[in-house]
Design goal:
This protein is mostly beta strands. The protein folds into five domains: about 100 residues, Cadherins (Immunoglobulin-like, Sandwich), CATH 2.60.40; about 100 residues, Cadherins (Immunoglobulin-like, Sandwich); about 100 residues, Sandwich (Immunoglobulin-like), CATH 2.60.40.60; about 100 residues, Cadherins (Immunoglobulin-like); about 100 residues, Cadherins (Immunoglobulin-like, Sandwich), CATH 2.60.40. About 10% of the residues lie in helices and about 35% in strands. It has four helices and 41 strands. The strands form 13 sheets. Strands 1-7-6-3 form a four-stranded mixed beta sheet, with no helix packed on it. β22 and β23 form a beta hairpin. The longest helix is centred in the C-terminal third of the chain and has 38 residues. It starts with 15 loop residues before the first strand and ends in a 73-residue tail after the last helix. It comes from Crypturellus undulatus. InterPro entries: Cadherin-like_dom, Cadherin-like_sf, Cadherin_C, Cadherin_CS, Protocadherin/Cadherin-CA. GO terms for molecular function: calcium ion binding. One of its GO terms (cellular component) is plasma membrane.
Length: about 700
């Protein structure tokens, strides 16, 4: 057999082996290696492995396998830390058992993989910055910086505001990558002098750190002084003594330091002055006696200026009125008012407003309105109208009818609230405007009679002959009462025409034998309202052969068609006669009453010749009174006795008593006496007795 000698060194498959191991791997972790090959056998083969140089992190484990193989493993003895040593390099040496021993080497490169085990760290725990309150948007305040020992995504840092209760960060923004903090909106030193921000730095693995940023706002003179009035009295009585306090106010400036120092003065005004009270408090007082008749109002201007650069100022105006007495009555802005309302208005409709002004001040100028009281004749118009006591608005309380009430006139009173109050009156005329709420009414021909009367038309009538005229009225006014007439229906439509404006019914052509004797027309009467209203009139016409025998054909035709026409005519004539007789009787009765009332008022007692008295006395004693005597019983104004009058003559023939005041003929005065020769009574205050007497 050939004895082996150690003439070969161990050889590794690769000259360099690289392992990537996570830095947080647990100690004891094993990593397999390809062992070295030695073609020698027996003890000359690989017997051991070692690491050079030795380190604290790794050791090598070697053992032979039962079937002649070998197992080589790197054993992690200590946890790796990429931040301390990101890479470990050493040599793995394989040694055989020859003499002298031979070795083989391969380089082991351990790359430590990063784990996010380091949070970001700010360079400062507290950052201080300043920014002017008038800094424009986008101005840089300061820059924050944080570092992270990790690498890659674990070492990438982003910046953000940490949510805080005061929300101070709303005025700022931070760049997520660079950490620059900038202004996003105008700052106000007076609102907040300092802003506390909390900045969070977060790496790619989610670990974060916080820092605090204090931003101080630098004041600039951007606020003018403020004048705050604590008390102010106006009006001031014109009897106020000099030194009377009119107003107390304080002057403030929201700026700090020199910018907040304020001086104050009153523009030249001889009647008032400014007096310092305490620190920044001032009093506005009267400096001399006041006279309202010379000046009723003072305009006082107070100026406050700060010590900033440039200085800012503010002014405040005090308007001081001098109190007045109620020496002016309200005055209406018009001498009279004319208002309009359409008829059929809604209840409580507003038609207008009256306005009165009072030159006085305060309660003396507060005007209330009311309807002025009037007599019984004005009560009806007052019931239609109401006026608002505060604003003078005039209302119509209920619907009005133009056909009944054309206008309403009331008197409105305006009274102030002075003591004693003063007032003024004005006339308000409310004109009712017409609405088209009445249809036309036909007056002729009368439409309430049945049957309809007929107009007579001779057969010789030519075109244009006037048959009749339709007369209608409309209770409305204006264009609502403008009537137009139209032929709505006719027995012979082409025979008659109606005047649109006049209502005249005329022939449009001559009559012919073919035309019916009795014609009936329906005329439409329409007003000019919107919408229009209308009525109809029925007109009858009889075509007659000549007017000489007009009545006979009329009666004959009427008897054939309708016997009621003659009866209607008789009734009309009878009614006219009865009415005339009634009027005549009524006139006579009224005349008698008037004459007797005059006689009673004057206490008239009529006298006659003495023999008439004796004859009447004899007749009374006998219990009879001859018919030849007329008598009168006169009741004097101062007596309750009956007095019998003497006859005018000694003997009177039998006659019928006349009427009072009636004229008597010659036969009424026997003996040939005329009324002029009639004996007169001696009393000049009496009148001669009539030839008859009346109880």
């Amino acid at each position: 057999a050939i004895e082996d000698i150690n003439d070969h060194s161990p050889v590794f498959p690769e000259e360099q082996v690289t392992f990537k191991i996570v830095e947080m791997s647990e100690p004891g972790s094993r990593f397999s290696l390809e062992g070295a090959e030695d073609i020698d056998v027996g003890s000359n083969s690989v017997q051991a492995y070692s690491i050079a140089p030795e380190n604290d992190y790794f050791s090598v484990s070697f053992r032979r396998q039962s079937r002649g193989g070998q197992s080589v493993e790197l054993v992690l003895e200590k946890a790796l830390d990429r931040e301390e040593e990101p890479e470990v390099t050493f040599s793995l040496i394989a040694t055989d058992g020859g003499s002298p021993p031979r070795t083989g080497t391969t380089e082991i490169r351990i790359v430590v993989l990063d784990v996010n085990d380091n949070a970001p760290v700010f360079t400062q725990e507290l950052y201080d910055g300043q920014v002017s309150e008038n800094a424009p948007k986008g101005s840089l305040v300061l820059h924050v910086l944080a570092t992270d020992a990790d690498v890659g995504a674990n070492g990438e840092i982003s910046y953000s505001f940490s949510q805080a209760l005061d929300q101070s960060h709303s005025a700022f923004e931070i760049d997520a990558r660079s950490g620059e903090i900038r202004v996003t909106q105008p700052l106000d030193f007076e609102a907040s002098q300092k802003h506390e921000l909390r900045i969070r730095a977060t790496d790619g693995g989610g670990l974060s750190a916080l820092c605090k940023v204090l931003v101080e706002v630098v004041d600039v003179n951007d606020n003018a002084p403020e004048l705050v009035v604590s008390s102010f009295v106006s009006p001031v009585a014109e009897s106020a003594l000099p030194g009377t306090v009119v107003s107390l106010f304080v002057v403030k400036d929201r700026d700090a330091g020199t910018n907040g120092k304020v001086s104050c003065w009153l523009e030249e005004q001889p009647s008032f002055s400014l007096r310092a009270a305490y620190k920044n408090y001032y009093e506005l007082v009267t400096a001399s006696a006041l006279d309202r008749e010379e000046r009723a109002r003072y305009v006082l201007v107070v100026t406050a200026v700060d010590a900033g650069s440039p200085p800012l100022s503010t002014t405040h105006t005090f308007t001081v009125d001098i109190s007045d007495v109620n020496d002016n009555a309200p005055v209406f802005n018009q001498t009279s008012y004319t208002m309009y309302v359409r008829e059929n208005n809604e209840a409580a409709a507003l038609v207008g407003t009256v306005r009165a002004a009072d030159e006085d001040e305060g309660s003396n100028a507060r005007v209330t309105y009311s309807l002025a009281p009037g007599g019984p004749a004005e009560r009806a118009p007052r019931s239609y109208v109401s006026v608002n006591s505060e604003n003078g608005k005039v209302f119509v309380l209920r619907p009005l009818d133009y056909e009944q009430v054309r206008q309403v006139e009331v008197v409105v009173s305006a009274a102030d609230s002075g003591s004693p109050p003063r007032s003024a009156n004005v006339t308000v005329r409310i004109v009712v405007l017409d609405e088209n709420d009445n249809a036309p009414v036909v007056l002729h021909p009368a439409q309430d009679s049945s049957p309809v009367s007929s107009e007579l038309v001779p057969t010789w009538a030519e075109a244009g002959y006037l048959v009749t005229k339709v007369v209608a009225v409309d209770a409305d006014s204006g264009q609502n009462s403008w009537l137009s007439y139209h032929l709505l229906k006719a027995t012979e439509p082409g025979l008659f025409g109606v005047g649109t404006q006049s209502g005249e019914v005329r022939l449009k052509r001559p009559l012919s034998d073919r035309d019916a004797v009795k014609q009936k027309l329906v005329v439409l009467v329409r007003d000019n309202g919107r919408p229009p209203l209308s009525a109809t009139a029925v007109v009858g016409a009889l075509l007659l052969d000549g007017f000489s025998d007009a009545h006979m054909p009329r009666s004959g035709l009427a008897a054939d068609s309708d016997d009621g026409d003659s009866l209607t005519l008789y009734l009309i004539v009878s009614l006219a006669l009865v009415s005339l007789l009634f009027l005549t009787s009524a006139s006579a009765f009224v005349a008698c009453k008037v004459c007797k009332r005059k006689a009673f008022k004057e206490g008239i007692v009529l006298y006659g010749p003495g023999d008439l008295q004796s004859s009447l006395a004899d007749a009374v004693a006998a219990g009879t009174l001859p018919r030849a005597y007329c008598y009168e019983v006169s009741l004097g104004t101062g007596s309750s006795e009956f007095k019998f009058l003497k006859p005018l003559l000694a003997s009177l023939p039998p006659q019928h008593c006349g009427t009072d005041g009636g004229a008597a003929g010659d036969d009424d005065f026997p003996g040939g006496l005329t009324p002029e020769e009639e004996p007169r009574p001696q009393n000049p205050g009496t009148f001669p007795a009539a030839p008859f007497s009346r109880l």
